[in-house]
Design a protein that fits this description.
By secondary structure, the protein is mainly α. The chain has 23 helices and five strands. It has helices spanning about 5-15, 20-30, 45-60, 65-70, 80-85, 95-100, 105-115, 120-130, 135-145, 155-165, 170-185, 210-215, 230-245, 275-280, 290-295, 315-325, 330-340, 360-370, 385-400, 410-420, 435-445, 460-475, 485-494; strands at about 255, 270-275, 285, 300, 310-315.
Length: about 500
């Protein structure tokens, strides 16, 4: 029982006792603070110290000591979670690999099967929240493969591990407090709680604070069951998007063709009316006229793979999908899956795979060189964000190049020449041991390269799969199982 409920119970008892009610009320109001639970040692003194301190602070904030004990007794810090949290692969998957590895025939077929199985529910959810069924299914498929993905952790263990580790303590303690409140309010049974390694819950992968504010009990059975109840899952995803500004009836994106001589610097995130884009020669890729209902909408031009790849006009609802996962690539995949569920084609323009992609170390070098030349690319962190994109665009403009803001190996070499530096020779790839080979085989199979049985042995099938993967990644096709190939496969698999 939460602390506030304990005090309320004491006051109710005082009233029932008649003449001594006032004294009882004073006694309840001045009662000693409720003690936090104590826990058996986890074997990790630093974790135990954090847990004891957290429990004291949680009780002081009104959390129920019994629920704290129930959730945190027996929890041990999990080093696998810390490893997953800190893992930053050397290779950043090219956008075309990210998209094609997720918009797959299998995912589309599975989504259509689910769509047919719960069609009445999806129709009712769409009618209530205004979010198309295809968008709901796209997010559902990405987050948990429509519920088929394994949730191998308990959220209390995941959140406690990450909170105790300390890098983002306040954030994960907040999630843990929300999880405790979920159990206090009997919104979720502790025995049923399952999560990802980061503590994301159920099939929509909600963090606990989002669950409290957004999860929906669609069938009114008294439970917001985002683990097994498909109606609750669909409605919860739709409610999340509706709550964050989804506009009923408006599109997400439209693929376009750009005229010759187009100024690619206009793809800088600026919003313009579709009618204004049309005046600049931007046309629908299918050649159709712009519907009057869209001409008055605002949109930004997006070049996910630079001037040589697809060009897209992004509408307001694209940004709403990004609220679910702050990634242009993620939102693009959701939109493309939704188109597939509706029987519409994907992107018409081919991805420019021939231009290659930079790995994380090369992006760090790119950022460092840009900043050294007076273009502020932000912190050299290997992540290609808005600051780096602006810096690339400014450098391209000064070099009389198409200012599409997209980094390529050719651009990196131009920066090296301009800065007068010679890159370090690439590190020598190291051969994998049997466990690493098995992981590589599993990843290659998952990515659609037929590596055969994941047995840790290198045969002709595995070598051919490695060569095909290397060619797709712009690597020299050697067919060797090395740490470099494994890093690239991890990044490509997401």
């Amino acid at each position: 029982m939460a602390r506030g409920l304990l005090v309320a119970a004491a006051l109710s008892l005082a009233v029932a006792c008649g003449p001594g009610a006032v004294d009882a009320q004073q006694t309840a109001a001045t009662a000693a603070p409720i003690a936090a639970p104590s826990f058996a040692s986890s074997g990790d003194s630093a974790f135990d110290a954090w847990r004891a301190d957290f429990a004291n602070r949680a009780v002081a904030r009104g959390r129920d000591p019994e629920v704290l004990r129930q959730l945190l007794e027996g929890v041990q810090p999990d080093p696998r979670i810390i490893e997953l949290d800190r893992r930053q692969p050397e290779f950043v998957s090219p956008v075309w690999d990210y998209v094609t590895n997720r918009v797959t025939a299998r995912r589309i077929d599975d989504g259509r099967t689910l769509q047919a199985a719960i069609a009445p529910t999806l129709s009712q959810v769409e009618a209530r929240y205004g979010v198309p069924a295809g968008i709901i299914l796209g997010i559902w498929g990405l987050e948990s493969n429509y519920g088929a993905a394994a949730l191998n952790w308990t959220p209390q263990a995941a959140l406690a591990t990450l909170a105790a580790e300390g890098r983002r303590r306040a954030q994960f303690e907040g999630y843990l407090l929300a999880l405790i409140e979920m159990v206090e309010r009997r919104l979720a049974d502790p025995a049923e709680l399952r999560s990802s390694w980061a503590g994301a819950l159920g099939q929509p992968q909600f963090m606990p604070d989002v669950y409290l504010t957004t999860a929906v009990d669609w069938d009114n059975d008294g439970h917001r069951d985002i683990w097994t109840n498909r109606g609750d899952v669909a409605a919860s995803i739709a409610n999340y998007l509706a709550d964050r500004g989804w506009r009923r009836g408006e599109p997400v994106l439209e693929e376009v063709r750009l005229p010759d001589g187009f100024d690619y610097a206009l793809a800088d995130g600026s919003q313009r009316l579709v009618s204004e884009w049309a005046q600049r020669g931007v046309a629908r890729v299918d050649g159709a006229s712009w519907p009057e209902s869209e001409r008055s909408l605002s949109a930004q031009l997006f070049l996910p793979s630079g001037a040589q790849g697809p060009a897209l006009l992004l509408h307001h609802n694209f940004g709403v999908i990004r609220r679910y996962n702050n990634s242009d690539r993620y939102a693009l995949v959701v939109a493309l899956l939704a188109r597939a569920f509706d029987g519409r084609p994907g992107l018409i323009t081919a991805w420019p795979r021939q231009i290659g992609a930079l790995n994380r170390e090369q992006i760090i070098e790119l950022q460092t060189l840009l900043t050294s030349l007076g273009y502020n690319a932000g912190s050299p962190d290997g992540l290609f964000g808005s600051n780096t994109r602006r810096a690339v665009r400014a450098f391209q403009t000064d070099q009389a190049l198409p200012a599409d803001g997209f980094p390529t190996s050719t651009l990196l070499q131009r920066l090296r020449t301009r800065a007068g530096v010679t890159p370090d020779p690439p590190r020598e790839p190291q051969p994998l041991q049997r466990a690493g080979i098995r992981e590589l085989q599993r990843l290659l199979n998952r990515l659609g390269y037929n590596a055969g049985v994941a047995d840790g042995r290198i045969g002709a099938r595995t070598r051919n799969a490695i060569r095909a993967f290397e060619r797709a990644q712009g690597l020299e096709a050697q067919g060797r199982a090395t740490d470099v190939v494994l890093d690239a496969a991890r990044a490509a698999a997401g």
